[in-house]
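TICKET #2291
ISSUE: user wants both folds in one file
ATTACHMENT 1:
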Amino acid sequence: MHHINYFYGHAHVLARYAGLADWCDPPRIWGYLQHGWNVHHGFDPRADLAPGVPKLVWSDGPRARGHELGLRDYHVLGAPWAYLLALAPQDEHAGERRGTIVYPFHGWEKQPVTGDHRRLAATIRAHESGPVTVCLYWLEYQTPDVRRSYERAGFRVITHGRRGRGRHDANVDFLHRQLAELRRHRRVVSNRLSTAVLYGASVGCEVGVYGDPMRLADDDIVPGGAERIRTEWAEMHGHVVPTDVAEKVARQELGLGHRREPAEIVDLVGWQEAHDERTGRTFVAVPSPPAGEDRPSELHAQLRWLDRVVQERDAELRRVRTSTSYRVGNRLVRSAGAVWRRLFRRGAGR
């Protein structure tokens, strides 16, 4: 299972929607799952996507752009957000929405963002009335200067946390926290059209996209860069975006109309169970190629075998890591290492 499939707890949302009893520890997804709004082929332009492995995207846009680039094996299933909305429908008796939640454009671990947060805070204060919440990505939240830029403007500053990276450190509650915050606010604002803005529009928030868009390192890796977004989605920019426009774009880009039934999700992401008579173990099988698709049978057979081996080793590793002997041994090794380092530093200081 590729680590991007765990971002923001996406795999967990799909597993819960599909009715898996152990959705807190979902099986590995057979394929690459789009993890954010994407104006390219659905994934990082630098990603080396393995041939024959399904590309699970949110909407028709990434699929069409991928086909233009010669890529195949696309399946449109809608964003995991669509499935979260099905699991957590709006409470008709919820309190009145107040204020604005702002999602400043952010970088990530390998691509920092540069821009003037104080100026953006001043711009927000000039255009927003009522209480303002600023939600920062965890990297910016841990940067005191960035956080203080908004706190000094009188804003409430929060973070939804890290997006997670793999099965053992997935942030299962990320989307749940984001949904709760969006439903508390009347408006959602950002200095760039982004996933968070589309999420807000999908749950009834008024939308605003304005201010210094800031710059991401290697921002032009996708042809057109930020300017292309402003050109192609010009109607989604401004201090106040018409509600009907925002809802229409959000529905299209998030693929809300492509949401599948639970049984379809199980089949689509490859969560069918199979039994190995030789070992007596049950595992999640890599799905066979759909009928009529031109896919190398030998390659697919090798992938099926490799997937089974990886699952068996992963299960064995989890058993070892949770065993008492492993935990005790790990503590002893750490303690011995700490003692050795102290002795080494004393010897070096003489």
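ATTACHMENT 2:
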Amino acid sequence: MTIKSIAFRDFIRGQIPADILLLLDKKSKKNKGLYVSPQYAEDVLSFIKKKEKEKKEKKKHALLDFVGAFGDMDDPKAKHQEIKASKYE
């Protein structure tokens, strides 16, 4: 597996000298994208899906931790600030 940086314009012209290409803008020197050869595409996609799933689960868990505080409160008419303050004291 080889990794190279290449100008985006050169990539458009059909130059693919490596399995993984980091596409750069020549003028601003910023990343424009990533090209992955078909033989590594499935591995990269599964990695990205796994990361996205972990991110969603982390957000969901944080939200459920906060929402769970509503059922534990003694005063059901408590304001949002009071619930949050009592949860993090």
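RESOLUTION: both attachments delivered.
EXTRA DETAIL ON ATTACHMENT 2: The chain has a mean pLDDT of 82.
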